[in-house]
Amino acid sequence: MKTQLSKETRPSFPKRAVITGGMPYGNKLLHFGHIGGVFVFADVFARFLRDRIGYENVIFVSGTDCYGSPIAESYRKLKEDGFTGTITDFVAANNKAHKETLRKYNISPNIFDGSGLGRAGEIHAEFTKEFILQLYENNALEKITTEQFYDEKAQTFLNGRQVIGRCPVEGCQSSKAYADECDLGHSYLPRDLINPKSTVTGETPVMKCVSNFYYKLPREREILKQWNDSERSKPNVRPVVTKTVAEFLEPPCIYVMNDYLDIYRAIAEKMPPHEFITDGKKSSFTLKFEKLADRECAADLLCADGARIRTGKTLVPFRITGNCEWSLESPVLDGEESTVWVWPESLWAPISFTQAYLESSGRPRDNWKDFWCSTDSGIYQFIGQDNIYFYCVAQPGMFMSYNGTDIHLPRDGELQMSVFAANHHILFLDKKASSSGEIKPPMADDLLLYYTAEQLRMHFFSLGLSKGSVSFMPKPFNPTAKPEDSDPVVKEGFLLNNVYNRIIRTVLYQIQSAGIKMPLGDVSDEMKNAADEAILTYENFMYRMEFHQVSYVLDTFIRKISKIMSREKAATDKDGDTVRQKQWLIDVFHGIRVCQTLLHPIVPDGVALVDEYLNLPESIYNWDNIFKTPAEIFENENEHECKFLEPRFDFFKKHESQLTQM
């Protein structure tokens, strides 16, 4: 664990912070991906920042996404099966289940409500109108007449998830594409969807013209490039974010198979200005345009003459209003009443939830600006990589447009840009699983039948999802696992169940046998240097949000403490040197004190139990005290007596099902 870090070069943290944990849909329960792909990381980072900058300065917000066609479609099917409640009843029941699952996993949001439920829903409805109206007044919206899918058999327009087909974006292999976005996060115009089918009747829908308001996202290409370029140099910004954002900032392109080259040549002069790009090694050629409208005109010409095309990733107008059957009301624009389209309102919902939390805690709602509009604050949004387009392209653009008509990178007092902690896919048994896909993920509650919440928190936290996709391989859910195979999920738990447990028990038993209340004194250079290095390295990786590296730091430091304890205890057991015995107790006690602070965000229940027996105050979590030894925290060792420890006591529990296998 060699490092050049020092106390003089420590990373700088904001004075205040908002952490978001995504918003699970209100039509389903939480599965392992919600917990292990997003919520554990958001929770650990929120707990760390509470210790680092003060509990009152951190707001961790999330909630159930109550609106949109996925919820409406699930409710429609549920009613067909005999459900008699309202759609609000349906969403509220799932919201209640979401809260309970998060509680079981010790996820600690300051607020977890619903975007359409209770007081939080009322505030969200108010802020949604305010936000959209501000975009409209800042000339960021335009009225566009487009074709929308219409089911003639059901005589209804189809929204979002009510249409399914193949993604038209070049290179995308998704066969689960919806009206204007696929399950891999690609956005496109509805007319480009390949082989669309209505989920309502199974019929092929037609296209009918409808007018709605769209955010002028394509006009923000240059400012988004400027922002994305500035993000690349920041150590806490993940490459998957800047790389994916850059892909969407490319000019509008059409990809055409070489088989249709003659068709292209025959109509090329009729097309808007473009660049023809070919590569003899590829089976297709590329047409690059400056404007999205030019690309659409060219696409019409090519398709009319029978050419099959695919479009490239680019910025397209981002739909704000629509005719959704289950959505929020939009403010009246140009004298027309409408509803909010599926995705947009979830992008500013964290601001609404921040307001709701402040109001519920007795603070003015308007104080949300202290957290979202100040350069002294940090906003950390934990998302999956499939949502990068919406959160890391559309949201930053809209936030800058909300700030004013002169589009620029945010200044103090304006809506700030977030740090996006986008995780790669967490796979299940080496395959991508989803509730709506062929491979169903294990539900979060079901995992707790085989593992403790803290075992799962440790395991998920250690997965290197910031670097690439990682497979979740729980032995009880793996049909190919053999009885003699070890369970990968409990591997990280061994560090606490075995090594750290043994360290704490040994110290407490030694204190009890020696008649010492608490071992205080000068810590040896060996232990102090090891502890300081662990603190600095841990802090640096937390700042960078490289959480799997944090796990490595903890593993290295805990094993270092164990090594020192084993060596010194063996020596003093042999020669009976009481002075040396007191010294290793002082050293190891300091190591435990530091570990307690570092482990506190990750496994808070086990840490609390250790604190109870060691009689450690909550002030040890305050990072103002992080480098202090126990002798600097406690004035007199005789005033702080450790609790008596029973034989074979475990601070970090194994699941009862694991005990029966021993």
Strand order of the largest sheet: 3-2-1-16-17
SS elements, strand count: 19
Radius of gyration (Å)? 28 Å
Distance between the termini: 34 Å
Strand content: 5-15%
Folded structure, characterized:
The chain is α/β, with parallel strands linked by helices and 662 residues long. The chain is built from 20 helices and 19 strands. Strand 4 (141-151) and strand 5 (156-157) form a beta hairpin. Helix 4 crosses helix 9 (344-360), helix 14 runs antiparallel to helix 17 and helix 15 packs parallel to helix 17. It starts with 15 loop residues before the first strand and ends with a helix. The mean pLDDT is 92.
What's the SSE blueprint?
Elements: E1 16-20, H1 32-53, E2 58-64, H2 69-80, H3 87-104, E3 111-114, H4 118-137, E4 141-151, E5 156-157, E6 163-166, E7 194-198, E8 206-215, H5 221-231, H6 239-248, E9 253-257, H7 261-267, E10 275-278, E11 284-288, H8 292-304, E12 309-311, E13 318-319, E14 321-322, E15 339-340, H9 344-360, H10 368-372, E16 377-384, H11 388-403, E17 419-423, E18 426-428, H12 444-447, H13 453-462, E19 470-472, H14 491-514, H15 525-544, H16 547-575, H17 578-599, H18 604-614, H19 630-633, H20 656-659
Helix pairs in contact: 1-13, 4-9, 6-11, 14-16, 14-17, 15-16, 15-17, 16-17
